[in-house]
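quick one, 276 residues, struct below
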Amino acid sequence: MAAEQHDETVTPSDAEVNLAIHRPHTARMYDYFLDGTTNFPADREAAGHALAVFPQAPFAARANRAFMHRATRALARSGITQFLDVGTGIPTSPNVHEIAQRTEPRARIVYADNDPIVLTHAQALLHSSPEGRTAYVQADVREPEALLEAVRATGVLDFTRPIALSLVALLHFVPEGAHEIAETLRNAMPVRGSALVMSHFTPDYAPQDAARMERVYRDNGNPVRARDHDEFSRFFTGWDLLDPGITSTPRWRPEPDDERISDAQASCLAAVAIRP
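---
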C-alpha cells in the first residue's frame, strides 16, 4: 500500500495556541460526551452540569457523528470529490477525509475551525490518501469572508466544481446572524451540484430539556440557540433537499448497524441539500 500523503496545516503565521484550559470550551465538552480524552477539568465540570439537565447529551453527540459519516459517504458515492468542513472540532477518527476517501481516494478536503486546540491536533486531519489532499485553516465561521479567503489560499479546493459544505453541529453556537453566515458560505459554492450538510440543536423533540441546556451553556460562557424546524429549514432556501428531507439526526438514512437513538435523545435536526 502506498504511503499516506501529508498536507501542510495552513494557518496565520502569527497564530498563537492559547488553550485557555481554565475555561470550558464547546469542542472539548463535545469530546467528553464522545468519551474522548482531549478535555480538562473545566470542560468536565461544565459537561457535568449539562448532563444534569440533559442526560441524553452523549446520545446526541454520537447520533450527530453518525449522521456526518452517512452524509459524507452518500455525497462521495454521488460523485462529489470536494469537501469543506467548517467547525471541525477535535479530530475523532474517522474524520470527513477518511470517510470520503474510502469511497473516492481522489477526494479533497479542507477543514476550518477557530479552536486553538484543534490546531494542536491538526496533523490528525492531514493524513490524506496518496491520490487526494487535505488541509486545515484556522478561521472563525463568524467571519465567513475571511474564512473563505483562507480556504481559497490553500489551493486544495476548486471553486468552479461542486463542493460539499459541512456545517455539522455548528451554527447553534452562533445565536445571532447564523442564517446570514450560512448564506455567505452557500453563495461561495456557486456550482450546480454543490451540497450543504447541516445538523442543529432543536427544541422540537424535548423543549424543556433544550431550554435547560441553553441556560447551562449560557452560564458557562458558551451561548447556544436551539432552532425549530422552520428556522432550520431557512438554511436551505433555494436548494433541493435530498430524501428524507429535514429529520432528526438518527433518522437521516439510518443504516442497519447504527445505534438506536430516539428523536428526543438526539434533539438535533439534520438535512442534506443540493444546489440546483
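The CA atoms of residues 20 and 116 lie 9 Å apart.
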